[in-house]
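Summarise this fold before class:
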Amino acid sequence: MHAITTKYIEATDTKGERVKATAFSGQTLTMPWNNEQNIQDNHALVAKALAEKLDWRYTYSGAVLNERGYVFVPHYSQMSFEV
């Protein structure tokens, strides 16, 4: 399955806020938080970037996983990424 989960990571003394995407297979990608985007779009952007990095070409639907993250699940009938 090509599901992707995302989670918000708070700022530290050395790094700003960021969002981490994790594929079901274990690959990850972390991107800085974009203050010009809303919460859902920040999570969708990193999920999309990870899917593209892994060359996964599906349409994804996102849903709130918990107060800090989302889960994105592919629709296998499509061949492009949309959120």
